[in-house]
Amino acid sequence: MTLTVINAELVKRLLPMPECIDIMAQAMRAVSAGQVSIPPRVTLPLNDGVGALLLMPGCASTLQSYGAKLISLHPGNSKLAVPVIQGFVALFDGADGRPLAIVEGAALTAIRTAAASGLATRLLAREDASSCGIFGTGVQAVTHIDAMWAVRPISEVMVWSRNADRASAFAREQAERTGLKVIAGEDPAAVAGCDLICALTASPDPVVYGDWVQEGAHVNLVGAHSVTTREADSDLIGKSRLYTDLMASCRNEGGDFMIPLQEGIIAEADILGEVGQVLAGEIEGRRAATDVTVYNSLGITAQDLYAAAHVYAQARSRGLGVQVDW
Fold first, then answer.
1. In contact, 135 and 231? CB cutoff 8 Å
2. What is the pLDDT of residue 91?
3. What is the CATH number of domain 117-299?
4. Mean of per-residue pLDDT scores for the chain
5. Which of 73, 96, 209, 244 gets the highest tally of CB atoms within 10 A of its CB?
């Protein structure tokens, strides 16, 4: 018996953004159809307080494998030029339980998270959306440029960060990498005035405000992952059509929606549902060009499992990856 080990560079090679967006459509449709079992993630804070260990198992009736994502989370790594999230997805054979693969987790997470936003944008944004505002300059900022570009005719990207020098450097790097017009925005309100907005920060407090966002915009809120933190203010949430990846995750971790709910700004019925339900035609997406739509991404194990299973299948079919006797 052999185990296939797939590193970060191979993940990037075998999981191009357009393909991953289609894979996320499969995953989210299965999630909303009840075909995926996803228990709550297990989080173990480290004794010294510098990070945490996270375990996220799952299985799906539509996959021939099951598994778990095991990652470390060290927020301080952003100051050390070391990834904040590191780890892997372990895949097991659905028929006999044999370990199949270890798939590097940081690259997989970076791509599939942006691909999920790309899916939501493809479903909810105006067809003619052409400008994109990015809040943040981390790895998710890079992959979200690719995801937005994959689903809409993006001609200009504006980037904002609290560190203006970093924003300027990031804009130059991404302009050179993509050939797009990428500029650093000094005024966050101007960045939030784009057709598409992606909030990708670690801020516990709002960075995007409702009076900055224009009619017809689509917003992806990706950075906040607890009921006490958020990237959008209540005004933005109150005037928008609201969608998420998994309603259970939204209730447990989605401060962007739960804080306005607790404030009485929105009712629970204003959270319209999951993107998988939009795919299935069970709930309505954008109704008018003037609608503001918001997707709150919490990230779920199904996305990792579907992405990892695709990478593993591609590696096996092409004879790639390191084969380890097991």
1. yes
2. 98
3. 3.40.50.720
4. 96
5. 244
